[in-house]
Amino acid sequence: MRKILLLTLLLAACSTQSQDAIARGAARSTVTKIVVDRFPGAPVEPVLDCVIDNASATQIYALAADTIGGPTESSIQIVADVVQKPETITCLSTTGLAAVLSGAGA
């Protein structure tokens, strides 16, 4: 809860575009750790791009909040949910990441 409050206070001082960029950057940090742990051997950048580009704003902010303390079970579930979205599956399949798709429920 404290992480979310801290993130909210930091973002409140920024423009909407800056808030989005900061949150997406922080979320990328959390997602990177999850991808490296859950999908060993997968190329991180393409997976990261597909997940971040297909996550909702709420999911982005939740992932960004977990940057401070590291990935939680909730952030792992968010990434798993995003990986299973049709848009993310399309993105991953066009970048040749079948290994990630086969482990999407992991």
TrEMBL record:
Name the UniProt record assigns to this protein: Succinate dehydrogenase
Origin: domain of life: Bacteria
> Keywords on this record?
Signal
Residues spanning the signal sequence: 1-20
